[in-house]
Amino acid sequence: MQINATAIRAGNILEWDGGLWRVMKTQHVTPGKGVACMQIEMRNLMTGNKTNKRFNSTERVERATLEQKKMQYLYNDGDMYHFMDTVSYEQIGLTKQLLENVLPYMLAEANVVVEFHGDQPLNVQLPQSVTLTVVQCDASIKGQTATGSYKPGVLETGASIMVPPYLEVGTKVRVNTESGEYIERA
């Protein structure tokens, strides 16, 4: 399935240069003069090599056709993370490298979508936002209101996040899983 270069998102799997590539980061670049383009950082799923590629905004790119299965994350034992198909109860193990984009926002028993190319699992997608608990942040200062300033915090998964200054430890927050940014209190 061909998509416009501007529709490429982090987590997409592209067929490019004779291989399958996972998109790690995207940035829309608009130079002072010239054509706008998408700066894409991607990793080859077979070799593990990373590359940066610029696609003109008018270019079309081949997105890999993947079968999607709803699964539930169960547990991990070292570098293997185990998931269960919610329909057939079949279990599979995925490596830490395959999950590097979603691990900061994934808790046990989380429902995810695992994408397969043939029988090989290639990608895990989380919902657009997840609710997590803040386990560490600086103390709030009395009278401080929501302003443009943020303070560093740590989520229950160990991921770092910038939170508003009035939040305290134990607060549940919604987090955007694509950008890793604070959305709102849950």
Task: Please give a quick description of this structure.
The chain has 186 residues and is an all-beta fold. The chain has three domains: 2-63, SH3 type barrels, CATH 2.30.30.30; 67-125, OB fold (Dihydrolipoamide Acetyltransferase, E2P), CATH 2.40.50.140; 129-185, OB fold (Dihydrolipoamide Acetyltransferase, E2P) (Beta Barrel), CATH 2.40.50.140.
Estimated structural class: mainly beta
Mean pLDDT: 87
| Integer tally of domains | 3
Helix content: under 10%
Strand order of the largest sheet: 1-6-2-3-4-5
Determine the CATH topology of the largest domain.
SH3 type barrels
Describe the structure.
The structure is a single chain. The protein is built from no helices and 16 strands. A hairpin with a 4-residue loop joins strand 13 and strand 14. By secondary structure, it is mostly beta strands. The strands form three sheets. It has a six-stranded antiparallel β-sheet, with no helix packed on it. The protein has strands spanning 2-4, 13-16, 19-29, 37-44, 50-56, 60-63, 67-77, 80-85, 91-95, 111-117, 120-125, 129-137, 151-155, 160-163, 172-176, 182-185. The mean pLDDT is 87. The radius of gyration is 19 Å and the shape is flat. Helix content is 0%, strand content 53%. It has three domains: 2-63, SH3 type barrels; 67-125, Beta Barrel (OB fold (Dihydrolipoamide Acetyltransferase, E2P)), CATH 2.40.50.140; 129-185, Nucleic acid-binding proteins (OB fold (Dihydrolipoamide Acetyltransferase, E2P)).
